[in-house]
UniProtKB/TrEMBL annotation, chains A, B, C, D:
One of its GO terms (molecular function) is ATP binding. Residues 115-164 form the Arginosuccinate synthase-like N-terminal domain. One of its GO terms (biological process) is L-arginine biosynthetic process. The lineage of its organism: Eukaryota, Metazoa, Chordata, Craniata, Vertebrata. The keyword ATP-binding applies. This is argininosuccinate synthase. Pfam families: Arginosuc_syn_C (PF20979), Arginosuc_synth (PF00764).
Amino acid sequence: MLQVRWSLHPEVRLHRSAAGVLLLFLLQHSRELLFCHLYFQCSLLLTAPTDLAVSFPKSKRAVFPSTSNPQATTLSWRCWMGLTRMGSCAPLARRTVGHPPPIPDNPSAFPFAFQGNDQVRFELTCYALCPSIKVVAPWRLPEFYQRFPGRRELMDYAQKHGIPVPVTPQTPWSMDENLMHISYEAGILENPKNQAPPGLYTKTCDPATSPDTPDVLEIEFEKGVPVKVTNAGDGAVRRSALELFVYLNDIAGKHGVGRIDIVENRFVGMKSRGIYETPAGTILYHAHLDIEAFTMDREVRKIKQGLSLKFSELVYNGFWHSPECEFLRHCIARSQQAVAGTVRLSVFKGHVSVLGRASPRSLYNEELVSMNVQGDYEPADATGFININALRLKEYHRLQSKVTAKQDE
Amino acid sequence: MLQVRWSLHPEVRLHRSAAGVLLLFLLQHSRELLFCHLYFQCSLLLTAPTDLAVSFPKSKRAVFPSTSNPQATTLSWRCWMGLTRMGSCAPLARRTVGHPPPIPDNPSAFPFAFQGNDQVRFELTCYALCPSIKVVAPWRLPEFYQRFPGRRELMDYAQKHGIPVPVTPQTPWSMDENLMHISYEAGILENPKNQAPPGLYTKTCDPATSPDTPDVLEIEFEKGVPVKVTNAGDGAVRRSALELFVYLNDIAGKHGVGRIDIVENRFVGMKSRGIYETPAGTILYHAHLDIEAFTMDREVRKIKQGLSLKFSELVYNGFWHSPECEFLRHCIARSQQAVAGTVRLSVFKGHVSVLGRASPRSLYNEELVSMNVQGDYEPADATGFININALRLKEYHRLQSKVTAKQDE
Amino acid sequence: MLQVRWSLHPEVRLHRSAAGVLLLFLLQHSRELLFCHLYFQCSLLLTAPTDLAVSFPKSKRAVFPSTSNPQATTLSWRCWMGLTRMGSCAPLARRTVGHPPPIPDNPSAFPFAFQGNDQVRFELTCYALCPSIKVVAPWRLPEFYQRFPGRRELMDYAQKHGIPVPVTPQTPWSMDENLMHISYEAGILENPKNQAPPGLYTKTCDPATSPDTPDVLEIEFEKGVPVKVTNAGDGAVRRSALELFVYLNDIAGKHGVGRIDIVENRFVGMKSRGIYETPAGTILYHAHLDIEAFTMDREVRKIKQGLSLKFSELVYNGFWHSPECEFLRHCIARSQQAVAGTVRLSVFKGHVSVLGRASPRSLYNEELVSMNVQGDYEPADATGFININALRLKEYHRLQSKVTAKQDE
Amino acid sequence: MLQVRWSLHPEVRLHRSAAGVLLLFLLQHSRELLFCHLYFQCSLLLTAPTDLAVSFPKSKRAVFPSTSNPQATTLSWRCWMGLTRMGSCAPLARRTVGHPPPIPDNPSAFPFAFQGNDQVRFELTCYALCPSIKVVAPWRLPEFYQRFPGRRELMDYAQKHGIPVPVTPQTPWSMDENLMHISYEAGILENPKNQAPPGLYTKTCDPATSPDTPDVLEIEFEKGVPVKVTNAGDGAVRRSALELFVYLNDIAGKHGVGRIDIVENRFVGMKSRGIYETPAGTILYHAHLDIEAFTMDREVRKIKQGLSLKFSELVYNGFWHSPECEFLRHCIARSQQAVAGTVRLSVFKGHVSVLGRASPRSLYNEELVSMNVQGDYEPADATGFININALRLKEYHRLQSKVTAKQDE
C-alpha cells in the first residue's frame, strides 16, 4: 500500500532509490499538504491521542522520556511545552530511521517551516543516530522553493499530477499536535498583542464554563515517574504510562487546565509567539515538582536545577541524542532515585492545586520541624551558625567602612 | 545581669536607649506574646497592608526590591514566597538598625522560632549593617529557655508582672503576614499530608466562590519594575509602587489567586511545610515573566536564570546584605534595562492568564518570524547551521560505533 | 566577475604577495568585495608586537579587554589563549567596520581556514556591528574552491597574473600571531601525539637554556587591570597598557614562560590541537588570579567563576559583540571594583611563582586568621555552625538507614 | 598499649567511658602536642608517605578519590590542594569511626585550630557517617580553653602528669602533611606579603638547583584514573595506585614541581594564606586535564566544569559524605567513562609540560581537522552556521539602533 502511493510521485521514487534514504524530505515538504500522503513517517505525531494509544510503545520511557525529569521539576511550566514536543519528536525520529510505521488513515498536515525549530530537531536526531543519512529538505533547496514559491504553485502541481489535496478551509494559524500538547502559531497569532480567539483551543475547555466541582486526584511516583493515578471522587485508577497520560489529558481538558500564551526563543535565533495546551503535562508538572521537593535533598536539588536549565535548552534545541544530553539524562535519572510517593491535588477551573503529599522516602522530619518539640535540634547551635555565617559579612563591612572613610577624608 | 534588666521591663526602655543595642532580643522573644509590647521593631511586618501603607517607604525599591528581579522571572512561582518575605525583612531590619519606628497600637505576635529561617535573616542583616551590634536571642539562651520552657511559664510571668497578653484563642497553626504575603505553618499543618482547612486562608477567596467574571488588567513595566496597573474593565489606574501593589492584592484576593502549599528547605537544614498566600506577587510574577521573555535576549536570559537561582537562594537564606547579593542585584538590574512594556492578563478563579503583550523594546520581529514572509532569513542557511551542529554528533556516533564494534569482536 | 575586481586592486596584489595567501582579504574587503585595499585592518594582527605598538590604541580597554576579566581569574590558563586571541580580534573588527586604519608596510598572511574558528569570530563581529554588511568568503564558495582546490592552482594563478609570491619554504605548520600570543597548528602538529619540534617556538626561549637567575616583578592592579610593572632587580618600571604588556612579553619570553600544548574544541564542532605561546598573558594571568583571590569576597568569586566559564565560551566562539557578552562584561567589571593591589612574583625557567601580595582593599584580616589571637572569633561558634550544617546530613543518614533496613528485611 | 597511654589522662578516660565515644576530642586537642600520643586517629595523615604505604588501603578509591575527578580537570590547579587534603581526610575519618588504626611510633602534631577548616571537615564526616556520635572538641569548650589559655599552661599540665612532650624547636609556621601534599600556614606566613623562606619546603627541591635534565613520563589513564606511569628515560614502570603516586611524588619533588602560594577562603568565613606542596598531584592534574580534553565531548565538558566548581567547593568545605557530593561523584564518574589514553609530559625546573597524547577513545579526528583534506566537512555549511548565529545579533543591533535613534531625536 505504501508503494502504491509512492509510485504516484516520480520525485519520491527518485529519492528512495538514492542511497542513504531520506525522510526529512518527507517531513519537510509535509508543510505543503501536497505530499501529505507520503509523510507517514511523522504521522504518529499528528493523529489524535486515542489513535496514538494503539501504536505508541508501551514502555514508560517512550511516554515519559522527560516527564520523570528536570522539566517536570525545576523549569518553569513554560518550558514544559518545548520539552514535551521534543520528547516525542526524538523517540519518533529514532524509530523512523529504523522502520517506517504504518500509514494512518487520516494524517493531518505537519507545518514544518524553514525558520522553525522542528527541522533542526528532526535532522539533528537523524544525523546523531545515522550519520550516513542524507537529508533532503526541499523547502531549503533553491531549486525547490524557486519552483514552488507559494501555495498556488503547489496546488497547480497537485492538480496536474492528480494528487488529492484537502480543501478544508484552514484556520488563520498553524497547529502541531501530539499526545502531550498542541501548539498554535503564526497567522493572526504572530502579533503578540492579539489575544488568542476563544474558539482556538481544541484540547481544553474554557475555565469559565468548566465544571463547578473539582476533580481530586492522587498521583503516585516511583523514581520520579508517575505510575498510578487515582481519582478520589469516583475511584477510577490508571496505571500504565499511556493510560494514565490519556486519562490526565481528559481530566485536565475537562477543567481547562494547561493553556499558556508565551513568547519563546527559537534555536535559530528569533523570538516567536505560541499558544499551547498541555493538559496532562501540566498536572504532572505540578505533581512531580511537589514530590521532588518533598523527597530530594536541598543541595542535590540546587545542583539538579542548574542541570535542568541546561537539559531543557538541549531538548528544546533538538539535542536529545547528543553526548551531553545522554550525560544529563543519566545524572537526572540518578537524582530521581528516591523521588517516590503520592501527591494529592485538585484540578479546577484552569488551575492545579496541590493539597498534600506522602512518601516513604521523604527527608521531611515532622518531629524535627515542630515548634513544640525540641528533639535533636539544640537551639544554641543556631547562634554559632549565624555568627560564623556573619563573620564574612562583618569583614566586608569593616573593609567598606575603611574605604569609605578614606574617600571621605 | 540579664535578669535584672528583665524584671524592670523597662529593659525595653533600656534597650532602646542604649546605643547600638539589641533588637533581635525584641524580635526573638516576641514569639512568646509576652513582650509583645516591646517588639515594635518588627511590627511593620505584622500589621495589615493598609496600615503599612502609611509607614511604608514610598520608593519603588522598598516595595519591589525583588519584584523587578530574578524570582519574578526565572524561579518557579514557589520561590516567590521566601523572596517576598525576605524582600521586606531586609529593608526593615536595615531601617530598624537606624531609627526605631513608632510603636503601632495593635501589634500581632511574631512567631520566631529557634529552628526558623527568620532568626537567621534578621541577625545576618543586623550584623552585615552594624557589625558591632550585640544580638541577644533569649530563645537560644539556655538560661532563658530553661526558665521558660513553655507557654504556661510565660503566661505566669506576664501575669505576675502585669504584662497584658492577648488571650484570643490561637489558630492551630502559626501565621506571618506582611504586605506581600502571609504564611501558615506548624500545628496541624506539620503533617504534610493534611490538607489546609478551607477556613485557613485570610487574604484570598476560595476560587469555588470567587466571581464568575474575570478582571482583565494591563500592567506596565519600566526596567523590570511595574509602574502602572490599569483595569480594562472599570478603567481604574494605580501608579505608585505601594498603591498598585495594594490594588493587586485586592484583585488577586477577590479571585482566589496566590495560594500555594509547598514543602521548602530551610537554611538551617530541615524541610518544612508551609501554606502561603501571595496575591499581588503572583500576578506580578506572571506579568514580569512574560514581559521579560518578550524583551530580553535569549542568551542573556539563560545567564540570568542561573543568577536567579543563586539570588533566590541568597535571599531565602538571609544574605540580602552581603557582597554576593549586592553583586547579583547589580547584575540583575543591568539585565532589566530593556524590560519595558505592557502585559495584558486575566485574573480568574485562582488563575492568572496572560493574554498578550506589547513593548517598544521587544526583540520580537514579526516579519522575521512570519511563515509567509521570507525577509532577511535565507532558508538555505538552516542547512549549514544544522550540518555544523551535527558535526560533533556524528563524530561521537562514529567513535561509539568503533568502540561498540571492538567490544563485539 | 570576481577576478575582474581583483585585478583592479593593486593592494590586493600586495597583500596576496604575502605568504599564505589571502583570507581576511576575503572576509574584510568582502564587505564590498571591492574595497579589498581596506583589509589591512587585520594586518595589525599579523605584524610583530613592536610594530603594533605604534598603531595600537592607547586605552587600556584595547589591550586588556579581557585581561582584567574572568579568564584571568577563573579559567584555567588554557582558556587564556583563545580569549586573548578573540580579545584582540573583536576590538579590531569593530574598528575595521568604522574607519580603516593605515596600511602597514609588511603585513603577514593570515591563514583562515574553512573549518576554523576565526572565520566565525570575524564574521559574527561584523554582522553584530553592521548587520547590513555582506561578507564574501571565497574559501567557502564552491566557485572559488573548485577553481583553486589547492596551493598549486593558486601559485599558477599568481604567476600568470604576475603576483609576487614569497618562496621561502614554509614551516610544516601554520602560525597566527598577535600582540598577546602566537599559535601553531596543522601540518605535522595535526597528529596530537607528535611533540612540537624545539625549533617551532618563536616568542619564548627554551627553559633549558633560559637564564639561571629569575626576574622578580611587582605588578600593580587597579579594578582588575594591571597598571604598573616594576622589576625588583633593575628597578625598571612600565606603566601604560601597551608598554607593560610588551615588557612582560620580553621578560616572559626570556625565561621560557607561556608555552602550552593543548587539544581544544572548536565552535564548529571538531577538536583540534594547537601549540601556543602567550608570554605576557601567562604572567598576568597568574598575577591577576592572585590579587583577585586576595581581594574578592568568597561568594562573589564563586558566582564570577560561573560567569567566567560562560564568558570564555562566548569569547572563544566569537560572540564578543553580543548582548550576552556585553552583559557579562558589565557584570565582571563590577566584580573587579575592589581588585586592587600589588603582586610580587618570580619568572624563571618556564614558570611563574607568586611570592606575596598586598592590597589596600583586601578582605584578608591577619588578626582574624591568626592562631594566636582569638580576636572577634568565638571558638564555641564553630560548634553551632558545624551542628547546623550536620543536621541535613544526619537526616539523610537516618533516611538511608531506614531504607536499607527495609531492604534487608 | 593504647590503654596504657590513655590511663595517664583522666579526661581521656572520662571521654572514653562516655556513651557515644568520641574521637574528635583526640583530633582537636592534638594541636597541643599534649595528648599527641592519643590522637592516633589522625596519625596516618601525619606520617611520611613511605610509612603510609604500609597502612594505606590498596584500592584506587582511597588514593584517587578525587584524582579521577573534577578538580583534576576543570578547577584551576589551586583548588587541587584543598581537595587532596579533604580527599584523604574523608576516607580516613570514615575508617576512624570504624576501627582505630595502629599507633605510629613517631606521630607529628596536627594543628587543628578553632578557626580552621579541618575541624569542620572531620566533624561533618563523622556526623554524616555516624549521626549518634558525640564529638567533644576541647578547644571550643570554654571550660577547656579557659583552663588552658596558652601553650605554657599545657606544658605545665603535661609536666605535672608526666606526659612526654616533644621539645624540638617548632618552625615559625604550622605544617600539615599527608600523602598528597603538605601545607604551611600561620606564624610568619600570616602576613601575605612575606615571601616563604627558601628553607620552608620539605617535599620539593628548589627549581634553581634541580636537575638540568627533565624526566619525561608517560601516564596512562582508564576511566579518568591513572593506572600506569612509565619513565621514558630509564623505563621505570609503576602501576598500582599507591606506587605510582609515591613515584610521582619523588619525580616531582626532584624537579621542584608542585609549589604554590595562595590566599584561600575558609568555609568559616575568613581568608587565609597558605603555602602548599603537591608534587604528584600537580603532575596528575596536568596529565588528567589533557587526556580529558582530548577524549571528552565539548558540551559534556562544559557541564562537567560547572559541576566541578561545585564539587570542589563541597570537598573543600568538608561535605564529602553528603547527598549532594555523592550525587556529583556519581555524575562525574559517568563523565569519565571514556577518559582513557596516554599523556606524555616532561617534568623540569618546577614546571610540567605536556608533549603529546594518544587515546583509543578520542573524539579527535585528524582527517576532519586537517586543512588539507576536506573530508566530511562541507565548507559552504559554515556560511549558514554563521548566518543563523548572526540572526539574533542583527536583531539586537536593529533594536539598539532604533532605541538610540529615538533617544537622539
